[in-house]
Each structure stands twice: as C-alpha cells, then as structure tokens.
Design goal:
By secondary structure, the chain is an alpha+beta fold. The protein is about 45% helix and about 20% strand. It has four helices and six strands. A hairpin with a 7-residue loop joins strand 1 (about 5-10) and strand 2 (about 20-25). The model has no long low-confidence stretch (mean pLDDT about 90).
Length: about 140
C-alpha cells in the first residue's frame, strides 16, 4: 500500500482530455492542476477513479480520459477512500457543478453498496434455508 498524491491536469497534446498524475510528495498547487488530494492507498484510489471514468478512457499508459475538469475533479473527490484534499483550483471551487457532480457520484456509490449488501443478505438467507433442508 503506497501513500501519495493524485492530481488532475489537462493533457497538453490531446484537447478536451485530462490526465491523472501521481506524486510521492505534494506537487505544491501546480498552475494547471484542478484538484490535488492525498490518499493513503494510492493504487486503490487510482482504481476507483478509473472505475468512475472507465468509459471515457483514451490512453491507459498516460492515464488520459476524455472528460472535462469538473467531471474528473468530482470523480477524484468522490472516491470513498480515506483522503485529504489539499488543493482545489479557484475556478472549480466557485463552480456549483462540482458539488452537484460529486454528490451524484456519492449517491451512485451508495446505491451500488446497498445493492451488494442486499445480495449478501439474500445469499445468507439462502444458505440458512438450504441448511434446514434434510439431506
């Protein structure tokens, strides 16, 4: 388990695309970064980010996604792992769309978690009923 920083920058050579970057030390609010967050489990955080934007993947090696900065920042901020946001670009902080997109993703994650909880409860009930059947 590695700890580190994830941040989002525009991909310079691809218009309308963002790149997910990682750093071991705080990048110090880069000029073009939208959001910088510290994660205690960097690999799991990258996996969760990719899960939210997997349909928009352009290049896996560069971690490039065809998404706007608000959508990517919401995906990074809505990761359900322990993290600490260290920087948010002033343009994103003033945008009400970021809060709405982050809230939508939180609700989506909660729905999936509830679904899997109910599947687990159903499986336990089925196991219990199967144990009552005579052999």
């Amino acid at each position: 388990m590695r700890a580190g920083y994830l941040y989002i920058t525009p991909c310079g050579d691809t218009p309308d695309a963002i790149c997910l970057r990682e750093a071991a030390v705080a990048p110090g609010a880069p000029d073009n970064a939208g959001i910088v967050a510290f994660f205690w489990d960097l690999d799991a955080a990258m996996m969760h980010f990719h899960a939210d934007l997997r349909t928009r993947l352009l290049d896996l090696n560069r971690r490039a996604y065809r998404a706007d900065m608000v959508e990517a920042a919401a995906a990074l901020d809505a990761i359900e792992l322990q993290h600490h946001r260290t920087y948010l670009a002033p343009a994103l902080a003033a945008s009400p769309a970021l809060a709405d997109a982050t809230e939508r993703l939180h609700h989506k994650h909660q729905r999936w978690r509830r679904l899997f909880d109910w599947v687990g409860i159903g499986a336990l009930i089925l196991l219990f009923l199967m144990s009552l059947l005579p052999l």
